[in-house]
Design brief:
With 488 residues, the chain is an alpha/beta fold. The chain has helices at 12-23, 61-69, 104-114, 118-140, 154-158, 167-174, 178-185, 204-212, 222-234, 276-281, 292-297, 329-338, 382-400, 416-423, 468-485, and strands at 4-8, 27-31, 43-46, 49-52, 81-83, 88-93, 96-100, 215-217, 238-240, 245-251, 254-260, 263-266, 269-272, 303-311, 321-324, 348-351, 366-374, 408-414, 455-457.
Length: 488
């Protein structure tokens, strides 16, 4: 007889786990709170425009390939993947920008043009990052975070010092040019922490950036969600949407069922890919592993203020991905991590997917996504959103030497309150718990509950950490644990 598993949530980690567990022969029902699947990776369509609401960067293509190959499939069976050239541009002031192209050779040329001799340092740095990437992806991140011994091997022991220095220290030691240093510090922001708080070992993100490149699935990141849904359904997964879970029932130390929409779904095993903190609030207090004080002390990845904007003309002097580092990074970072408040002068990121993908906007129009990183838990009002939109659009116009404010057909926003309402996100964080030294691997919230025998967790607050590729890996890791502890 099959074991029945209820999976809560339908983001990357839940969908990945559902595929692995269905393939292994379990009877899977996946329950999603919202009307559409995808968790944070949903889609907004309006007036012929298409926006990815959540992730917009496709990095580490090898992780996606590994996921699909586990089912004898390829990403190309489901979606078209284009390597972006340029990958992105970074603005440091008016008409002052550096463009990162699609090969390490071209990136070396861009560095050399900015600072003579820097390309030699860059090659040394990237070679070290590549070694770390191979160790991380082959040896470390596919471990379930059960024991500190997972981090111990001959190769990691040789790199032990890299866990006690920071990405920022290493970058600033090698590169004196502030612009080049900022570009090399940028990728670790995907891990949810400041470069000064991120262990040096995580410079493997620089290899993901410069060595592997930046990609775009045609029609947007949501195509990956649709691909995983297609695969899950092929494997027999039952998906129920528009059904927020209200309670996880425990009897004699085991999860027996979940209740949603006044319906009880019985299960042999319960797996939650929803927000970890929120999932524990669905349990009676006796069965919660982590107190409110525990969560309060943790360093969370930022929240975000996002705008989805339809323009009635093509936008100039920008790429598919464009970063605006024309203000002080440390001051903004301080407003996120050290003294949480709305930043005075925020850095921001803008994505114009219609630059490379005509399916995302009507002809001669442009789809724009703007993101400001924020501390989680901040006050979020309509007035604040409007004020910050005006701030960044004024700066955008100045820095890129064009007028766009009068070409806006519509804009929609998404911020702290929406992350809480739509995803039950702790304090409205955008993508989980930061990967700092004390929140790495076995020091993160566990995939398997210590208090309920058949309750499991997956996703960005657990192992291995924030981001889309780690979420795919998290789904694989938790499914392996379930198979190990609940053999058919």
């Amino acid at each position: 007889m099959k074991h029945s598993i209820i999976i809560i949530g339908s983001g990357f980690s839940s969908l990945a786990a559902s595929c692995y567990l269905a393939k292994a022969g379990y009877d899977i029902t996946l329950i999603e709170k919202n009307k559409t699947i995808g968790g944070r990776a949903r889609q907004l369509k309006r007036d012929g425009f298409t926006f990815d609401i959540g992730p917009t960067w496709y990095w580490m293509p090898d992780v996606f390939e590994r996921f699909f190959s586990d089912f004898n499939k390829k990403p190309s069976d489901y979606y078209q993947l284009d390597k972006l050239n340029p990958a992105y541009s970074v603005y440091f002031g008016k008409n002052d920008y550096i463009t990162i192209e699609d090969s390490l050779e071209k990136i070396c040329e861009a560095f050399e043009a900015e600072e003579k001799g820097s390309s030699i340092q860059l090659m040394k740095f990237i070679n070290k990052a590549k070694d770390n990437y191979n160790i991380a992806i082959k040896d470390l991140v596919y471990n379930p975070g059960v024991s500190p011994l997972e981090l111990v091997s001959l190769t990691t022991m040789k790199r032990l010092n890299q866990f006690f220095s920071s990405v920022k220290k290493d970058v600033r030691k090698a590169f004196k040019n502030d612009k080049l240093a900022k570009i090399l510090e940028f990728p670790v922001l995907f891990l949810g922490a400041k470069p000064s708080n991120t262990p040096s070992f995580y410079n493997f993100m620089n290899y993901a950036d410069f060595g592997l490149g930046t990609f775009h699935p045609k029609k947007g990141m949501y195509q990956v969600i649709l691909a995983m849904e297609h695969l899950a359904k092929e494997l027999g997964v039952n998906i129920i949407t528009d059904s927020p879970v209200d309670k996880i029932n425990i009897e004699k130390g085991r999860a027996q069922s979940v209740i949603c929409n006044n319906t009880t779904y019985n299960a042999d095993i319960v797996l939650s890919g929803a927000d970890y903190h929120h999932t524990e609030t669905l349990l009676d207090k006796a069965y919660r592993q982590y107190s409110e004080a525990y969560w309060e002390k943790k360093t969370f990845a930022p929240s975000s203020l996002l705008f989805y904007v339809g323009f009635d003309k093509k936008i100039e002097n920008v790429e598919h991905h464009t970063l605006f580092f024309d203000v002080d990074f440390d001051v903004h970072a301080n407003a996120i991590y050290d003294n949480p408040k709305w930043p005075e002068d925020p850095l921001f990121y803008a994505s114009f997917p219609s630059k490379t993908d005509s399916s995302t906007a009507p002809e001669n129009k442009e789809a724009g996504i703007f993101l400001i990183p924020l501390a989680p838990g901040l006050e979020d009002t309509k007035e604040l959103r409007e004020a910050y939109f005006n701030k960044i659009i004024n700066r955008f116009e100045k820095v890129t030497s064009q007028t766009v404010i009068n070409n806006i057909l519509f804009k929609e926003s998404f911020c702290v309150n929406d992350f809480i309402k739509d995803y039950n996100s702790y304090k409205g964080n955008a993508y989980g718990m930061a990967n700092t030294l004390t929140q790495t691997a076995f020091l993160r919230p566990k995939l398997k509950s210590k208090k309920v025998k058949n309750l499991y967790f997956t996703g960005q607050l657990s192992v291995p950490g924030p981001g889309v590729p780690p979420s795919l890996i998290s789904g694989k890791l938790v499914s392996e644990l379930i198979i190990k502890h609940h053999q058919l």
